[in-house]
Amino acid sequence: MEKKTFAYSLSVLVLVIILISLFYIRFTGYAIKEPEKKVTLYFYDENTNCSLDGFLFIGETLIGKAENGIYNLSYRDYTEKFLNNTNKNITLFGKLGKCFNKDSDYYFDRSWKNIAIDESYFRSDSEFLFKTKLKIHNPIKREMLGFIQKDNAKYYLNNIILNNITFNDLSTINKHLDNNTKYVIDWGIDKENYWQSPYETFTRRSGDCEDFSTALLSLFLAYDENIKCYNVIFSTHITTFCYISGNYIYYDQKDKEIKRLIKDKTDTLRIKSELILFNKEYFDYYGLKNNSRAYYAFDDNEYFEFNDEQDFIDWQYSLISKERKINIYNKLEEEVKKIEKTVSEDEYTELRTMKLAGVAPTLKGFILDNLYLFIASLITLLLLITLVIRIIRK
Q: Mind listing the pLDDT tens digit for each residue in 149-174?
């Protein structure tokens, strides 16, 4: 009788130990969830076979950064930032990198329209290939920012005699560059437009309107990096436009400069009306057609796109209170770090609370990771049961 009581007590003790272990696993976060399925996105340039590293956007939402041409789209990002987003475009923006040799510091900005990623792709690891053919010296969108190179313009600026009076110095810089740059058209029916770097313009001493304007803006920002100056792209021309102390100014080739001072900064309608007249005056002064309009404006950190003339007027007006932004690349790096920190904290919380967006937590991962331990425990349990049975029979 004592042996049977002992056997039963031992069996109950083993059962209690097993139950306590399971509860410990359940409530302390040791229950390891299955690895979350992902969709891998690959980005590369067909012209060079170089991978593309950069900041990844779904629509207008930054979700992370592709490295070595790879981004792993998690199920959570898919449900939160892709599935319910009306804009299904995927955009990658970044610097070209070492694979592109001398062009490594230029930007690329490429989009893929209405990408269809179905939820079923997350049932197993899936891959999507995003390829493009970059034309580095015929830039689009934010790629143009890479052609404003104030650091590379500083050596050239040192050759110009200035007197530290802003308006006089900007006029002197414009005149010096114009005197040393011959206008040469670099495009035609059988020849694609080629944007020179400012250094190429300085050394070749020639170029067309975008070459002159990007070189001039680089010099202006080398002179004062906080100055509110931008390149503006019209239908048939690119120029340099500034707002300084209430003055709106166009600087252009042929040593042309046109300025308008608007002292009153409170009467919005009057200011915008004057800007309309001022832009028309510039068209007449430089010989542009009156039906020309602005499409884009940019410096080394910002890019603006205008849908119509009113958009452009509104942007010109906004310069009264607008401040130049910090380096766009550094800003995006900071935003990515915040995203990564948030993801890391959320994953820790999910592990402790056994919750995972879209994926139910299970013990499968824990069992697989500790398979040998479970086998050993099972063998020990079987031996214990055998021993108990033998004790009872005696």
A: 999 999 999 999 999 999 999 999 99
Protein fold of 144-325: C8orf32 fold (3.10.620)
Distance of alpha carbon 143 from alpha carbon 333, whole angstroms = 17
Q: Which residues contact 353 (CB under 8 A, 6 or more apart)?
A: 29
What is the C-alpha to C-alpha distance for residues 328 and 305, in angstroms, rounded to an integer? 16
Q: What's residue 118's pLDDT?
A: 87
Radius of gyration of the chain (CA): 32
Q: Residue 220: helix, strand or coil by DSSP?
A: helix
pLDDT for res 342:
73
Q: What are the pLDDT digits (tens) for 311-339? A: 999 999 999 998 887 788 888 999 999 88
CATH class entry, domain 38-136: mainly beta
Stretch (H or E) spanning 71:
strand 70-74
- SS3 letters across 317-362: HHCCCCCCCCCHHHHHHHHHHHHHHHHHHHHHHHHHHCCCCCCCCC
Cα–Cα distance, 229 to 251 (Å, whole number) = 10
Return the minimum-mean-pLDDT range out of 41-50, 74-83, 143-152: 74-83
β-strands 247-252, 256-261 pairing: antiparallel
Q: Where are the domains of the chain?
A: 2-32+363-393, 38-136, 144-325
**Alpha carbons 366 and 134: distance in angstroms, whole number:** 46
For residues 316 and 259, what is the distance between their CA atoms, to the nearest angstrom? Answer: 14
CA–CA distance, 177 with 143 (Å, rounded to integer): 24
Q: How far apart, in whole angstroms, are the C-alpha atoms of residue 349 and residue 31?
A: 13
Report the distance separating Cα 314 and Cα 305, nearest Å: 12
Alpha carbons 41 and 74: distance in angstroms, whole number:
11
Please give the average per-residue pLDDT across 238-261, as a whole number: 94
